[in-house]
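Predict the assembly for these two chains.
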Amino acid sequence: GAVVSQHPSRVICKSGTSVKIECRSLDFQATTMFWYRQFPKQSLMLMATSNEGSKATYEQGVEKDKFLINHASLTLSTLTVTSAHPEDSSFYICSASDVPVAFFGQGTRLTVV
Amino acid sequence: DAKTTQPPSMDCAEGRAANLPCNHSTISGNEYVYWYRQIHSQGPQYIIHGLKNNETNEMASLIITEDRKSSTLILPHATLRDTAVYYCIVRSRNQAGTALIFGKGTTLSVSS
């Protein structure tokens, strides 16, 4: 099946710094990608929809100034967690659709210390 | 999208078939049933999807009842590596470009 690659797989950063996570669709083009967050023992929660060439759409309660999304090409979306704090520690997952199937990246484990 | 109901957990012996049920009694005619699984600390993995006919691929079989109100994912010979959370999601093809919304899924534990 189609492949979505996410990088890095895990990152540890200091409180107050910013972290960038990349999501690439390797063998198909995606005008739309999605970012999810997952806390321990919980299901995936949709954070935002990344749109190529336009602004991202954020779910209610997700701060757009904290979670910056850039979708500069049809195969790459980036999520930047700005001024990270320990409560931002989570598992972040991206997704892209090769219609009619959605494929997911491997996930990024972010730990803010 | 129609709501789905799955048991929170199931156990299966290694080598036996794992049958995971999903109830989607409010499914509409143009909605597909999708199954994904998430192994610990990994992103969700696509398994299979179907509309009304039974489907089979190298990973699993999907059995959809004639009234389409429920379905069963079958892993014919479960292995320890099949231990994961399995998600049943219903979505119309028209929404294929929109985000999948995940419920709590079924935690399948395969033991030797």
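Chain B has a mean pLDDT of 94. The two ends of chain B are 37 Å apart (CA to CA).
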